[in-house]
């Protein structure tokens, strides 16, 4: 190629390059490649030849070379070096050159590259060209890759072509105008006069692009939307003509006249009729005609029906029309095409809240979709099935969903179990049915349930006093020999510990009682302790249950002592701590054991954050007895019940603020040494409560009476807030309000914020007060304190202060931060006088 020859005068001249191969030959050659490497070699060789041709400024074959380059670009090979050659072809006067040049510009250029600005003048000249096909090329290119600068410069030319009588140019100009409006919305009003006569055009191509333009303008401007609502009758007339017109070979697709235009008009009607009564009324009849007259044997008809359904559901349509739309979706569910079934389920899921009864008619078909092999259809059917559950069909629907839970793939089990829990809680016909349903879920998919399933079920069982014997017997049977479902084992261990006496008494009336001995029950719990499948949390449940049974059983106390002492040297720190504390109860404080391990009271339900009074303590999720225990009925200067109020939070932690040894007026005070003395300094550590304090009239559950009237007193809303704790980026603020029904009650709202760069996780706030007070700690809003002060955790504390004494409090904070477990103790003594006087 670089060789030189002598001409007639003896001068050296470069020889002409051989003609490059044609595009068709290149395609044929590339297709013969057997490997990717061979194809890559062919492409590289041809690219080298094209580059040489570009360097030689070969105008003869530039068009052919750019065409080949575009083919290689479509195969995924780099072709950026041909960008300037495309501009040269666009500037050519030949139509064939312009066609390839504009095609190359659309493929190789975009607005991120400054090279495209060099085209602006060429496109402007071609928009004013005398040949419509050249004008069409320029409109296509501008509508495809024009930048905002190009659109501003050329919008005037586009607007002129939009008014021309040439339908070929009008349809291209309408689409180009859509691109201009997207790039420069403020130019929208320029095209408004040109849109007046667009819908009068008979050409379907112009009609189609005009509807697209009107849709774009309505979506981007409320003023345009209001302006074009007057076109609804005209659009209805066009749609009616399409439906009623006979066979037209030019527009017919599977027996339907121009389905593309019908779909576009339906979408525009949907936008125009939304939130407008008059427009919706004007299109009700035509939508009913489309819904009833469209042929459904072909996919084309299904597409039109789907758009019709979406339009009916989005405008203010009549109730009968909405039922017709949902019935169409019901027919879609019977279609063999999976895509159509999926679309139907998704649409029904969107409409089920507004047209619940109409969707209910198709419940059996929806439930059948749970058996579909396609996972996406199965998931949509599951979501829709849960949306259909109500008080009338809850038993039947739960039966179907439990069957689905049993047979579905693992990725569905978590969502399905959560849905069943929520539906059962909301629509349960009876407590026994509710408990049976949740136990069935735990038995089937226990490993997949949410973390709060265990405390929720425990609370439900605790509140169902009349079926305690039935529940503990069912749970005992459920875990015999099978410890694989850990949440089920945890609930069973908790119930056996609480109601073990009912289990061995054989007093179950709901079903045939079983005869169980104390040793058999302990065998099960010990098996849970040593099972390889048991987690640390489950072992904690089991050990605590065994300890509780020491007050329920009479003959096995010595065996229980042995088990507890064995785990005092466990390598699991959690179990070791429990065992050591329980062992100390046996040895030093045996007279308090029955009071500490007495049966849990009925737990209060807080709707804002799931189960009430469930606090995470030592890895076991249990209701906190310390905060909910009612005061004793008689004067007890240093009663066990009041001593227990001081135990919250101080258990195994060495206090950060050292406290001096205090006197021990009672056995209750001795227990403070075991779990950490958290009485406040500056006051008697375990001062006995006056005899009159326990006799204050209260509801049986601490502060329960507050729910009957407005909780807070408006007069005291001006109590100043305080900062109770600020250290290591963690800040705790207290705000105060006083109860309207009981002036002795102060309601404290804590707000925890985190100014560090990482979240604080597993955050637990605990509090204790002197014995002359009583305290109730409600559930927190979260366990994660977001970083950078982007959010807070809130928690409510209710404090009963009958003697109007100055309020003092010891708080304990535990959380994980930067991979380390953090804990701290602090005293709060700066409460404002308005909060306790």
From TrEMBL:
Single Gene Ontology BP annotation: intracellular protein transport
InterPro entries in the record: Adaptor_Complx_Large_Subunit, AP1_complex_gsu, ARM-like, ARM-type_fold, Clathrin/coatomer_adapt-like_N, Clathrin_a/b/g-adaptin_app_Ig, Clathrin_app_Ig-like_sf, GAE_dom
PROSITE patterns: GAE
Record's keyword annotation contains Transport: yes
Transmembrane segment boundaries: none
Family annotation (SMART domains): Alpha_adaptinC2
Family membership: Belongs to the adaptor complexes large subunit family.
UniProt name for this protein: AP-1 complex subunit gamma
Organism whose genome encodes this protein: Loxodonta africana (African elephant)
């Amino acid at each position: 190629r670089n060789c030189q020859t002598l001409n007639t005068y003896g001068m050296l001249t470069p020889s002409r390059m051989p003609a490059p191969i044609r595009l068709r030959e290149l395609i044929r050659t590339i297709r013969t490649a057997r490997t990717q490497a061979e194809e890559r070699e062919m492409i590289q060789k041809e690219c080298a030849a094209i580059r040489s041709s570009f360097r030689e400024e070969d105008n003869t074959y530039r068009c052919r070379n750019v065409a080949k380059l575009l083919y290689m670009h479509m195969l995924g090979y780099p072709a950026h070096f041909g960008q300037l050659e495309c501009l040269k072809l666009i500037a050519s006067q030949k139509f064939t050159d312009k066609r390839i040049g504009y095609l190359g510009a659309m493929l190789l250029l975009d607005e991120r590259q400054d090279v495209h600005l060099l085209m602006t003048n060429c496109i402007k000249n071609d928009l004013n060209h005398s040949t419509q096909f050249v004008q069409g090329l320029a409109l296509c290119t501008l509508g495809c890759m024009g930048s905002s600068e190009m659109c501003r410069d050329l919008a005037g030319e586009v607007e002129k072509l939009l008014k021309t009588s040439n339908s070929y140019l009008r349809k291209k100009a309408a689409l180009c105008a859509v691109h201009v409006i997207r790039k420069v919305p403020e130019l929208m009003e320029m095209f408004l006069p040109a849109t007046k006569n667009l819908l009068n055009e008979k050409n379907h191509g112009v009609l189609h692009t005009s509807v697209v333009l009107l849709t774009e303008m309505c979506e981007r401007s409320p003023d345009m939307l209001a302006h074009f609502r007057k076109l609804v009758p005209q659009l209805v007339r066009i749609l009616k003509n399409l439906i009623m017109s006979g066979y037209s070979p030019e527009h017919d697709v599977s027996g339907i006249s121009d389905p593309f235009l019908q779909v576009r008009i339906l979408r525009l009607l949907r936008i125009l009729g939304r939130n407008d009564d008059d427009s919706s009324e004007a299109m009700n009849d035509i939508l009913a005609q489309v819904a009833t007259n469209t042929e459904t044997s072909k996919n084309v008809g299904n597409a039109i029906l789907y758009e019709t359904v979406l339009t009916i559901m989005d405008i203010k349509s009549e109730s009968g029309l909405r039922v017709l739309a949902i019935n169409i979706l019901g027919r879609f569910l019977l279609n063999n095409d999976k895509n159509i079934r999926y679309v139907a389920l998704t649409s029904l899921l969107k409409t089920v809240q507004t047209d619940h009864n109409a969707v209910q008619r198709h419940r059996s078909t929806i439930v059948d979709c749970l058996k579909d092999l396609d996972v996406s259809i199965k998931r949509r059917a599951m979501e829709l099935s849960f949306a259909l559950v109500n008080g009338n069909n809850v038993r039947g629907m739960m039966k179907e969903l439990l069957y689905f839970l049993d047979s579905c793939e693992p990725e569905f089990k978590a969502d399905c179990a959560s849905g069943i829990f929520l539906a059962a809680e909301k629509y349960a016909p009876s407590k026994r049915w509710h408990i049976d349903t949740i136990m069935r879920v735990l038995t089937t998919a226990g490993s997949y349930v949410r973390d709060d399933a265990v405390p929720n079920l425990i609370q439900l069982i605790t509140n169902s006093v009349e079926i305690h014997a039935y529940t503990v017997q069912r749970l005992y049977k459920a875990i015999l020999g099978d410890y694989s479902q850990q949440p089920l084992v945890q609930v069973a261990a908790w119930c056996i510990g609480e109601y073990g006496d009912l289990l061995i008494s054989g007093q179950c009336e709901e079903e045939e009682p079983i005869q169980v001995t104390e040793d058999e029950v302990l065998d099960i719990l010990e098996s849970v302790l040593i099972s390889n499948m048991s987690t640390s949390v489950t072992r904690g449940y089991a050990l605590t249950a065994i300890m509780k049974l020491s007050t329920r059983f009479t003959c096995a106390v010595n065996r229980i002592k042995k088990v507890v002492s064995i785990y005092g040297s466990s390598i699991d720190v959690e179990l070791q701590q429990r065992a050591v504390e329980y062992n100390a109860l046996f040895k030093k404080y045996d007279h308090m054991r029955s009071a500490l391990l007495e049966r849990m009271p009925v737990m209060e339900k807080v709707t804002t954050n799931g189960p009430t009074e469930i606090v995470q303590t030592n890895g076991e999720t249990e209701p906190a007895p310390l905060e909910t225990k009612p005061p004793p009925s008689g004067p007890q200067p240093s009663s066990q019940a009041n001593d227990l109020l001081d135990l919250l939070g101080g258990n195994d932690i060495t206090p950060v603020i050292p406290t001096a040894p205090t006197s021990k007026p009672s056995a209750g005070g001795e227990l403070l040494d075991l779990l950490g003395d958290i009485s406040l300094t500056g006051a008697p550590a375990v001062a006995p409560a006056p005899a009159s304090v326990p006799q204050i009239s209260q509801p049986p559950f601490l502060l329960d009476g507050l729910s009957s009237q407005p909780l807070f007193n408006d007069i005291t809303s001006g109590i100043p807030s305080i900062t109770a704790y600020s250290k290591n980026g963690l800040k705790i603020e207290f705000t105060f309000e006083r109860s309207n029904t009981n002036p002795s009650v102060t309601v404290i709202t804590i707000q925890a914020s985190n100014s560090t760069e990482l979240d604080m996780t597993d955050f637990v706030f605990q509090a204790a007060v002197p014995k002359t007070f009583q305290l109730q700690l409600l559930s927190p809003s979260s366990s994660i304190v977001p970083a950078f002060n982007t959010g807070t955790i809130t928690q409510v504390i209710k404090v009963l202060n009958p003697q109007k004494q100055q309020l003092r409090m010891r708080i304990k904070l535990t959380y994980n931060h930067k991979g380390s477990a953090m804990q701290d103790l602090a005293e709060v003594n700066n409460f404002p006088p308005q909060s306790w006087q």
